[in-house]
Amino acid sequence: MRKNRLTIVVAAIILFLIGSFFVEKKETAKEKLPTVGVLQFVSHPALDQIYKGIQAGLKDEGYEEGKNMKLVFQNGQADQSKLATMSQQLVQEKKSDVLIGIATPAAQALANTTSEIPIVLGAITDPVSAGLVDSNEKPGRNITGVSDKSPVDAQFDLIAQLVPKSKKVGILYASSEENSKYQVEEAKKIAEEKGMTVKTFAVPSSNEIAQTVQVMTSEVELIYIPTDNTIANAMQTVVSEADKAKVPIFPSVDTMVEQGGVATVGINQFDLGVQTGKMAAAILSGKSQAATTPIYTFKTGDIIINQKQADKLGITLPDNIRSKAKIIE
Ligand code: TRP
Q1: Which pLDDT value is given to residue 17?
Q2: Is 103's C-beta closer than 6 angstroms to any atom of ligand 1?
Q3: Per the UniProt record, which residue ranges are transmembrane (predicted)?
Q4: How far apart are CA 171 and CA 226, in angstroms?
Q5: Could you tell which of 125, 182, 249 is best to mutate to test the pocket of ligand 1, judged by most ligand atoms within 8 Å of the CB?
Q6: Cα–Cα distance between 234 and 218 in angstroms, integer?
């Protein structure tokens, strides 16, 4: 009898221990969903589209927010010290398993914070000159992702067809943005090769944009804008000043054409995000590793035209362009 009771007690204790072990395991698994930490540099329509695309890309690959993945989003509001603090939070407090940086300054802040957690670049103009990877083919560190390098050559071909008589180009960008400097150099070279003269106008901050555009409109025949976050964020100001002088704006992305640019050959911003989200998913599931995954680049862009703006400025669209273009009303 005694012995039997002892066996029962011991068995009960063992069962209890086994049971609690499984319960505990299940609970920790529930607490720690794989976490994706996203840091966006600032809000402007293009970057907002990219973030939406990222969510769609993760979902396409089976990661659903709240179900089998935790998504933590932070917006640095173009403030360097906010970017640094938020990077710390995403790494230390939120324990992100994969990080995503949207726009160059955000990606750089993340890269300064961790050299271990994988970082996926969300639409970075030139990851090499931004000091983020060794090369686009073999990134080599904890970083890979998507580049949104503009098809600058195709953009200037389009400009030459739409405004064949305009030869004086002014390029508007912010001096604080590494990513723009790269594209400005390239645009200058290409425009000059096509027989245009180029003058660059770098603004120290968004406060000087209105005045700078006023100066530009008295000196140039068209304004070209690279994928510059500061200018994208102040596109309305740029458009209203340029409109007063009837000087056409040729930006580098669809969203800036929608906001009052005339035309571009650009990569769809949402698609950039989808690709970024898919690459993050592949790293999260262990299918790929940052160091050995090449930077993804888009080979072509779409022709986007703002019909209203073209009409307003007396620019007629040749039929061969109209038939290929996406026309925004
Ligand atoms: N390429 C920019 C960077 O590296 C970010 C960016 C993506 C962007 N799409 C844009 C900037 C559209 C301006 C407009 O920072």
Answers
A1: 64
A2: yes
A3: none
A4: 8
A5: 125
A6: 20
| Residues 214 and 195 both lie in one domain | yes
Distance 148 CA to ligand 1 centre (A): 7
Kindly give the number of the ligand 1 atom that is closest to the alpha carbon of 41: 15
Do the domain assignments include residue 21?
no
Gap between the Cα atoms of 175 and 11, Å rounded: 73
* Pocket of ligand 1 contains residue 148 by CB under 6 Å: yes
Atom 9, ligand 1: residue with shortest CA distance: 46
Number of domains observed in the structure of the chain: 2
CB of 196 within 6 A of ligand 1: the answer is: no
Is the distance from the beta carbon of residue 253 to the nearest atom of ligand 1 less than 6 Å? Answer: yes
The mean per-residue pLDDT over the stretch 20-28 comes to: 55
Cα of 292 vs centre of ligand 1, distance in Å, is: 24
Separation of CA 314 and ligand 1 centre (Å): 29
Residues 217 and 254 in one domain: yes
Q: 324 and 202: one domain?
A: yes
- How does pLDDT run across 85-125, given as a tens digit for each residue? 999 999 999 999 999 999 999 999 999 999 999 999 999 99
Considering the domain architecture, whether residues 289 and 306 belong to the same structural domain is answered as: no
| Same-domain status, 189 and 142 | no
Structural domain contains residue 90: yes
With respect to residue 97, please indicate whether it lies within any of the assigned structural domains.
Answer: yes
Closest CA to ligand 1's atom 4 = 124
Question: Is 46 close to ligand 1, i.e. is its CB under 6 Å away?
Answer: yes
Q: Which two tokens stand for residue 86?
A: 């938020």
Band of residue 27 on the pLDDT scale cut at 50, 70, 90: very low
Amino acid at site 149: K
Same domain, yes or no: 183 and 215 = yes
